[in-house]
Amino acid sequence: MSDPNTLEELASELAQLKAFKDRVDGRYHALRRRISQKLTPGSRLRVDSAAGWKLGTVLREDVKLSARIADKAAFAAWAAKAYPEETQPAFEITGSEKEVAEALYLAGATHLVKSVTVVADELRRKILDLSTANGAPMAPDGEADIPGVVIDRTGGTVKCQTAPDGGAAALEMLADGELLLDLLTAPDEDQAAGRSA
Fold first, then answer.
1. Source organism's superkingdom (predicted)?
2. Which end of the chain offers a freer environment for a tag, N or C, measured as fewer CB atoms within 10 Å?
């Protein structure tokens, strides 16, 4: 028995689905941006159909801040000036294992090591904790110009978690004429804005 669908029919179906997928993805991301302007971080909103089907939950994650040292050399140079008692000189191996082994065997190859500044773990932790709490680089004395320390902001995004029966609920809404298919056929916000401008 041969496949009832021709290659052209399958390709047409695939192209149509891809066009719908792109359209749905675009609308989904646009709605997430709009909702993020209205939904406060840490909030959740249960979404039900008019018939009482649970579609899912829309939530906005809390924004999380964390400080890290992105440039160890710049941070160490700053710490050596600002907190000299919290730093100490050290040596860092720059050669390959083979070179180091040979140098150690032959004794005294200074080109294999370089002098570096090591910042005390306690100071590093204090600065990272203060910077995370402040949302910007900050030293124990309040100094804010700290090279090498960056603040990463994660979260705060809007997510939609579909309920276990959310797909069935959406199909039921489609059958009942409740599903907002005009969302797929309405012009993009960018296109609409361009026409009204």
1. Bacteria
2. N
